[in-house]
């Protein structure tokens, strides 16, 4: 078993929580950065898994209260621990929000990555510490290609994607200039029951669970026709881990190779609770209706459209398949089913909890 020491930034997010489990299973001592919260407890599904893992693995999982915006915090953390591997996942990860919080998003997502790399270089750790950067398919933007891979030019259209493109280039620059083992994982959308409630998949599965339990009647959504390549977060974190196990650093796309619309996701998720949707109307007047009862279950809210949209994404993970022997294990239908069933169970378990309606 490996006795290596890894740092995961953003450990309390969806991906961080799965990666933490994978690293612990592989014998690592895991350190994670979690932001301090003064006004609420730690209640997201993802963070509850990390806290449970911390309780079970007392000396193997160490959580640090901190923020990647603070270079002095990073310096003292790295000076004390000199990590073997750093998985940099922390980000303002919501694309829609990035149009309203442009400077903040770029500060966290672009300069945050540079702060971490600069910390490694300042402490002379470039021959010891391997660095993983969580890059994104969103950087491909309004691409016209049928599929995107490592050779597709980056063409960001949101502040989120522009910041992630910077993180991509600054990571490859550190590899070329300083010989840092630095990897960009260019990951297409990946989801799970631990996804934040502001992302479209979880927004849908959580609302369907509420509808199923008679707690609400309808979901408000934005662009139903946007297409994404959706996989499962656990599969993708296994891929990220494999990238860091290679002899030489490189960049890899992780994707399923299949594209589906938001509408497809809604239809599939409603099927899990036995509701067949029929569509009528068009544009912002389109509605999704329960074919049996005639009740309106989906409406369009124009405020949920983005100022600029990435309409179509489909990835090719051929390179990861060949070099990492990676392929997604969990199918789209299994993913949707797991998410709907987990949300039904969650509401059953904590029926009185205050759930804020996602306006994202
Ligand atoms: P997530 O659930 O939003 O997790 C991001 C984590 O980063 C959160 O725990 C957040 O903490 C933390 N964070 C944000 N700002 C921070 C700061 N200044 N200092 C320290 N921690 C901070 O996102 P995810 O889905 O796990 O994604 C992980 C990474 O992969 C992100 O970089 C994302 O942009 C990227 N990515 C995700 C996907 C996807 O489909 N999931 C695809 C491609 C790339 P709080 O809980 O305190 O906000
Ligand atoms: O939107 C459309 C929306 O917010 C998906 C992040 O993890 O993946 C994620 O970014 C699509 C978009 O994810 C609603 O317009 C319709 O076309 O779930 P999302 P995203 O923007 O693709 C990438 C790869 C990342 O890197 C990011 O970190 O769904 N959509 N109606 C909606 N989206 C939201 N959020 N809410 C709606 O009501």
Describe what this molecule looks like in 3D.
The termini are far apart. Helix 5 (102-122) runs parallel beside helix 6 (159-178). The mean pLDDT is 95. The longest helix is centred in the first third of the chain and has 21 residues, at 102-122. The protein has helices at 14-25, 45-56, 71-81, 95-100, 102-122, 159-178, 200-212, 233-243, 262-272, 318-324, 332-349, and strands at 5-9, 29-34, 61-65, 85-88, 130-136, 181-187, 190-191, 219-221, 227-228, 231-232, 252-254, 260-261, 277-280, 287-290, 296-300. With 360 residues, the protein is an alpha/beta fold. A hairpin with a 6-residue loop joins strand 13 and strand 14. It folds into two domains: 5-191 and 231-254, Rossmann fold (3-Layer(aba) Sandwich), CATH 3.40.50.720; 200-227 and 260-313 and 332-349, UDP-galactose 4-epimerase, domain 1 (Alpha-Beta Complex). Strands 3-2-1-4-5-6-11 form a seven-stranded parallel sheet, with helices on both faces. It contains eleven helices and 15 strands. The site of ligand F7E has 23 residues, from helix 4 and helix 7. One of its GO terms (biological process) is 'de novo' GDP-L-fucose biosynthetic process. It is an enzyme of class 4 (lyase). This is GDP-mannose 4,6-dehydratase. Its EC number is 4.2.1.47. Keywords: Lyase.
């Amino acid at each position: 078993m490996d006795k290596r020491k890894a740092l995961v930034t953003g450990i309390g997010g969806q991906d961080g929580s799965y990666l933490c489990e994978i690293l612990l299973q592989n014998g690592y001592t895991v350190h994670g950065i979690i932001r301090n919260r003064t006004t609420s407890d730690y209640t997201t599904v993802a963070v509850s898994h990390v806290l449970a893992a911390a309780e079970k693995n007392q000396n193997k999982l160490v959580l640090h209260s901190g923020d990647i915006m603070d270079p002095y915090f990073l310096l003292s953390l790295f000076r004390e621990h000199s990590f073997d591997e750093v998985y940099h996942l922390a980000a303002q990860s919501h694309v829609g929000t990035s149009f309203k919080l442009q400077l903040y998003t770029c500060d966290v997502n672009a300069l945050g990555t540079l702060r971490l790399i600069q910390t490694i270089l300042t402490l002379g750790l470039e021959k010891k510490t391997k660095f993983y950067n969580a890059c994104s398919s969103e950087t491909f933007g309004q691409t016209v290609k049928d599929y995107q891979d490592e050779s597709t030019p980056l063409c960001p259209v949101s502040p989120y994607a522009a910041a992630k493109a910077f993180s991509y280039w600054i990571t490859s620059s550190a590899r070329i200039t300083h010989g840092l083992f630095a990897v960009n994982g260019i990951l297409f959308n990946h989801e799970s029951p631990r996804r934040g409630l502001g992302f479209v998949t979880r927004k849908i599965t959580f609302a369907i669970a509420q509808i199923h339990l008679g707690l609400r009647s309808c979901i408000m959504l934005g662009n139903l026709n946007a297409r994404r390549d959706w996989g499962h977060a656990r599969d993708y974190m296994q891929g990220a881990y494999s990238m860091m196990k290679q002899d030489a650093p490189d960049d890899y796309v992780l994707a399923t190779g299949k594209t589906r619309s938001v509408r497809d996701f809604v239809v599939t998720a409603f099927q899990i609770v036995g509701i067949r949707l029929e569509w009528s109307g068009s544009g912002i007047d389109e509605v999704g209706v329960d074919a049996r009862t005639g009740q309106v279950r989906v409406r369009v809210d124009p405020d949920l459209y983005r100022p600029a949209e990435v309409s179509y994404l489909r990835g090719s993970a051929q390179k990861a398949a060949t070099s990492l022997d990676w392929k997604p294990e969990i199918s789209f239908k299994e993913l949707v089913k797991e998410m709907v069933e987990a949300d039904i169970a969650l509401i059953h378990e904590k029926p009185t909890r205050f759930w804020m309606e996602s306006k994202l």
